UniProtKB/TrEMBL annotation:
One of its GO terms (molecular function) is protein-L-isoaspartate (D-aspartate) O-methyltransferase activity. It is an enzyme of class 2 (transferase). InterPro entries: PCMT (IPR000682), SAM-dependent_MTases_sf (IPR029063). This is protein-L-isoaspartate(D-aspartate) O-methyltransferase. One of its GO terms (cellular component) is cytoplasm. Its EC number is 2.1.1.77. GO terms for biological process: methylation. It comes from mine drainage metagenome.
Length: 213
């Protein structure tokens, strides 16, 4: 299956929908989404839709991935923390745009599959662990940017603490089944300021130790 025409159509759709950062569009174009999609859904790899990946999780809609990545305002020397590895697709996009990605997934089977994909695609600037995303990764803090791909009921204090000064965190905030919105948090002189960006629907951010695989 030649996905190139579908990929080009998707990139054009993202541009029409407000993704104007050319670096982000180039990263989306360079990361093969079909490598992160289960076999039964391969024909939908370049549709602008979320797809199931197991463990009750999804690989996010490309537009949401692109808009959240754009909202991070990434620089190529930055160190990024991602909460919720999932299929690894978002981490692979981030890895094209920054120095190093640290990513946390609470479902061990998903993490192992994502790490296999990173190796197969020769993506070497991602470090992944299985753990409690709400705890963050204090041993590697501070982070220039933090991206959360599960909905929190508020701004998680642990993650805010691990965000460097002048850092940016992008996350969905809201209750499952209720209204959720992507929020961009800037930390200046130790104090956060938040702005609402656009509505979304994500699985909830679960606190506590991950399940045993």
């Amino acid at each position: 299956m030649n996905g190139e025409p579908r990929k080009i159509r998707l990139i054009m759709e993202l541009r029409r929908s407000g993704v104007v950062d050319t670096r982000v569009l180039a990263a989306i174009e360079r990361v093969p989404r079909e490598a992160f999609v289960p076999r039964p859904f391969l024909d939908q790899a370049y549709e602008n839709t979320a797809l199931p990946i197991g463990q009750g999780q999804t690989v996010s809609q490309p537009l949401v991935v692109a808009l959240m990545t754009q909202a991070l305002e990434l620089g190529e020397r930055q160190k990024v923390l991602e909460i919720g590895t999932g299929s690894g697709y978002q981490a692979a996009v981030l890895a094209k745009l920054c120095r190093r990605v640290y990513t946390i997934e609470r479902h061990k089977p998903l993490l192992l599959e994502a790490e296999q994909r990173f190796r197969a695609l020769h993506v070497h600037n991602i470090t992944a662990i299985c753990g409690d995303g709400a705890r963050g990764w204090p041993e590697q803090a501070p982070f220039d940017r933090i991206l959360v791909t599960a909905a929190a009921t508020g701004i998680p204090p642990n993650l805010l603490e691990q965000l460097s000064d002048n850092g940016v965190m992008v996350l969905p905030v809201g209750n499952q089944g209720g209204e959720q919105i992507i929020v961009r948090v800037r930390k200046v002189n130790g104090r956060p300021s938040a702005e609402n960006l656009f509505p979304v629907r994500f699985v909830p951010l679960v606190e506590g130790a991950p399940p045993e695989a």
